Structures
1.
Amino acid sequence: MITITLAIVALTCVISFTAFSNEKVINDLIFYPPAISNRNQWYRFISCGFIHADIMHLAFNMYSFYLFGDMVERAFEAIFGGAGKVLYLLLYIAALAICLVPTYLQHKDNYHYRSLGASGAVSAVIFVGIFLNPTMGLGIFPLPFHIPGFIFGPLYLILSAYMAKKGHGNINHSAHIWGAIFGIVFLIITCQFLSDYRPVPVFFSQVMGYLR
């Protein structure tokens, strides 16, 4: 059975591989703030998440997304029933756009700024996974051991905030941060109105149980 996660991975790979050898595809889909400000090409908030800089960028994002996406998709089906898959897809698509709003506000008149990749949406899915399963072990290269998700998450956000402030490399660390925050907020709000599941007390219960 084709899951939403696999469908997103497949579509992203097809479009990304097409863009690798076609600069026009990249130019048409990439997140370019002046094109949004001056030509109202709002679709770029989402389309940029389906193209990547190179094979390694694509592989890292899609591998991370698949590992957590499969788990989160199944969790959404368990929590929300028949609406689970729709809400999971909405989480991913909305995260693509919302994680870039701060970037857009900062660079809307910057003709030299361009961004691409699904990292913000992937961060949203990863952090939903961490919030649902805070004690699962996660690895950080080059550490030879795993740490629980409730420790990994804050460390990741602190490191991303530091890198964003320093402006290191061509990675949009801001998208990682806002994607992660959006994912958790989305989970809490949808559970509050569409389910009896309450992720916040369950999260703290799991963490306290781990620390005992």
2.
Amino acid sequence: MVRLDGPLGSRLQDSGHPVSAPAWSARVLRSAPQAISALHREYAALGCDVHRANTFRCTRRACGDDWAELARLAVQLARAEAKPGQRVAGSLGPLEDCYRPDLAPVDAFDEHLEAARVVAEGVDLLICETFPHAGEAVETVRAAVATGRETWVSFTAGPDATLLTAAQVGAAAQACVTAGARAVLVNCIAAELTSPYVRALAGCGVPFGAYANTATWNGAETSVARYGELAAEWRALGAKLIGGCCGASPEHLRAAWGDAP
């Protein structure tokens, strides 16, 4: 099993750092990079196998003229805290809102390629994550693959699982595998609603997994013990990549990993 890290954005927000749109957690690269380093350090000590650099919103569209410098800084922060044998993943997200598939741009390959080339400079792999729109996900995977880096992709149906059906995620994941993705995942869906989406990934022919939110929109938090039970369901379905998304704590990660090999 590959132990994925937990969230950066929600934990930075919980610590009082401003993470408003459009830059979201990338804002903290300017204001408090040491807070990002501290989270990477915590995940490294926890035993995460893969650290996602805080590059999710590091694009020209979201951050302006210094976007590339911010992306390189985010990768440096993750790399500095990762322990030997732990991999650093560059995160590539939707160009607009990960909960607004209607805003997904058409023909976004060149814009995604611009970001992917910069992020790829210092990472071990690229993860195209939190995509609610199949077409943009495929374009981003194509851009990531063009850098020569190993590429993963992860889809979201939103915290309440209303943006995509499990069947739609399965079809989108297969299209991304055809485009060169070497692992497929789901994330940013409430943990209680994630299992059908994990099941939909099982036939894609590549490793698959999940890193879930701990709540629906305005819903009750999933307990550490319950998160562990749900992650055990994902592993029973064949998931090999397990972590946490919005709201997940280090304790949630420990519970999710369980005693799986």
